[in-house]
Specification:
Layout: H1 2-7, H2 14-30, H3 37-62, H4 70-87, H5 92-117, H6 121-140, E1 145-147, H7 153-159, E2 161-162, H8 165-192, H9 200-222, E3 227-228, H10 229-247, H11 249-259, H12 261-266, H13 271-297, E4 299-301, H14 308-319, H15 331-350, H16 355-380
Antiparallel strand pairs: 1-4, 2-3
Amino acid sequence: MVRRRLHARDLGPAPVLLALAVTWVVFQSLNRNFLSPRNLSVLSVDIVGTGMVAVGIVFVLLIGEIDLSVGSLAGLAGAVFAALNVTLGMPEWLAVITALGCGAAAGAIHGFSFARIGVPAFVVTLAGLLAWNGLMLYLLGPDNSINFSEDGLVAQLTSRYYDAAVATYGLAALATAAYLLASYLERGRRGAAGMPYRPVGEIWARTALLAVVAFASVYVLNRFEGLPLALLIFLAVIVASDLFLRRTPYGRQILALGGGVEAARRAGVDVTRVRISVFVVSGTLAAAGGLFVASRLTSASQVPGSGMLLINAIAAAVIGGTSLFGGRGSPWSALLGVLIIQSIGSGMALLGIEPPVQFMVTGGVLYIAVVFDSLARRTADPYRPLR
């Protein structure tokens, strides 16, 4: 497996995993509480809001575009939910659906403006950043925040934990078995189609690694409060998004579009529809991320729209391995990238390092990731001119 990737000049997630391991080792050596069950449990919940937004960003980056409105959309979703639920008395479940619908509608506006009218994605989403941020502030009112029930549906997203050993370890075993079965089924399909497939040894090695990670995670999290509901939802979204991109014709059209617009069009891809759809996905997941951020604070505020959520979401996608040039990346990139960003923030907070230094370190990590992305693209196509 490693030899094949080296020969193909594609290391996959290995550099990101190595960076994450180094980050954890360094902070653990500086503060022994970094890898404590309590801190890892807090970390596993803190990554969800930004991670959700980052997954949506991955979809847009895969076609070689950018969405600058996601931070404002996240804040708008929280404001819409709180205004409808607290101010107008709408049931929580309906307010949640409405908030997600607003994110999807805003994404559709961005996508239509870009794909149909021809407005550059950078410009239309920059306009969305300002417009949706203004609407968020209008809904929040003069106090710039609306508190909601700590026992309600949205608050439960980040406050509910499952600590029953049978359920948590059973879930880890089920995930491992599902991966093994899916790998064998894929091997059979690819073999029947005459395509390259993974050796049995590699499948078992990957399954063993997944089992170690899954059971170790459950063991550590159970030592504090158990498996967070927020983390389970986040992982479910990542798995579903990954399967959608890799297993469905429509998902493969997104990847094809990132490889080249004209080539995708000649292959029969409906470029306009695909472009609009990725912005709808981005807007919807930005709204979902905003609800998780609001859940963590038990209030809707202008925190998501402040700009840091946007920066961290884009940084997470790129640091995790999604290319800014399109065509390469996966939803797992969002998980790896947001883990690195939040680990840096958590570790520095434990060490008492001020936020400005955290920003500089995160910026340095992002710069290194972009340089590697550019070098990898240059290596894959040595005749591509430097810009």
